[in-house]
Amino acid sequence: MIEQITLRDLGVIARATLPMGPGFTAITGETGAGKTMVVTGLGLLMGARSDAGAVRAGADQAAVEGVWIVPERGAVAERVADAGGEVEPIGGGRGELYLGRTVTSEGRSRASVGGRTAPAGVLADLAEQLVVVHGQSDQLRLRSSAAQRDALDRFGGEEIAAPLAAYRAAYEHERAVSAELSDLTARREERAREAAQLRSDLDELEQLDPQPGEDVDLAARAERLAHAEDLRLAATQAHAALSQDDDTPDVVGLLADARRALERAAANDSTLQAHAATLEDLGYRAADLATELSGYLADLDESGPHELAAVEERRAALGALVRAHGTLDAALALRTEGALRLADLDDDGDRVERLRAESDDAQKRLD
User: Which helix (H) or strand (E) holds 58?
Assistant: First the structure.
């Protein structure tokens, strides 16, 4: 329902607002009063071709704005949303739809739908749902095949509701199958290239077999190997201070001497017995630490320049993988997701045959 139309600088009309609303509205006036301009303005809101001659003399542009009360949901609201506009809810399942059109004195035109700029073609699409124009010798809406089908379907009533719903479902299914088949056929070469690339990437991943977090671990390993001599010297000095094979004083020996001294005097003072126990624990911990340092030194002795070279080579291989896929995690994800995608792409041939058979069957049901 048309709620209101506002015209500015259109023909003989400088500015006019026509409140309409429900019921019958008659626009009367003498010849030259602007009745035709109202119909012209309505035509612009219906997506009609713009004409610079309709702009009022001396004005830069003409403007027409209209407000329609429409269902909050439905074909009109969906078309408005597709164009990026909005239907403003007003309650009761209804909403206000704002349409606008401007025409400059140079003939340029701009349309707006639901508050957003849109092509004039969107106005034409909406006009089929919003306006019916009756002339002396024609009924413009019935020129639309969609309107003709809708009128015929409404005339059939409830008797054809179930068959109509079934046909529409079959038609939508046939369209979906045909669209998928067309897409697969048109993009066959593109999908084949994607499959070849995926196959190459998956082969590389299988050969390299990267592990989660491996790049971080290798970086730490390379840092350690690059400073192996400094690490060896520090660990050797610490081990020598903790434990010696000869009679040179060391931490383990000094702790043992201190413990024994306290144990000898503990008979006269129980407090010393507790300190002696602490020294015994420290001695065990120092001995354990010395053993761990020995193992650390043995590991350093086994690693050498050859291991550093192997680590750097592995890091270079993983680095190439990261550059190709963004991150190591993305490459690992591809190993799982890529396999599924490749299976889908490799099924294209059989899938096309299945879709062709399904499309033929859908066409037969429609016929």
Answer: none
Question: Among 101, 125, 142, where does a domain finish?
Answer: 142
R_g over Cα of the chain: 43
Strands 109-113 and 88-91 turn out to be unpaired
Q: Which long-range contacts (C-beta less than 8 Å, at least 24 apart) are formed by 227-230?
A: 228/300, 228/303, 228/304, 228/308
pLDDT tens, the chain, 367 aa long:
889 999 999 988 999 999 988 888 888 888 887 888 888 888 899 888 888 888 999 899 999 999 999 999 888 999 999 999 999 999 989 999 999 999 998 989 999 999 999 998 899 889 888 887 666 545 555 566 766 777 788 888 888 888 888 888 888 888 888 888 888 888 888 888 888 888 888 888 888 888 888 888 888 877 777 776 777 778 878 888 888 877 788 888 888 888 888 888 887 787 888 888 888 899 899 889 988 888 877 776 666 656 777 878 888 888 888 888 888 888 888 888 888 888 888 887 888 888 888 888 888 888 7
Closest CA to 43 of 117, 142, 111: 111
Q: Which of 142, 165, 188 is the last residue of a domain?
A: 142
Range of the domain at 264: 206-349
Total of domains in the chain: 2
Predicted TM-score (pTM) of the model is: 0.42
Beta strands 88-91 and 13-19, pairing class: unpaired
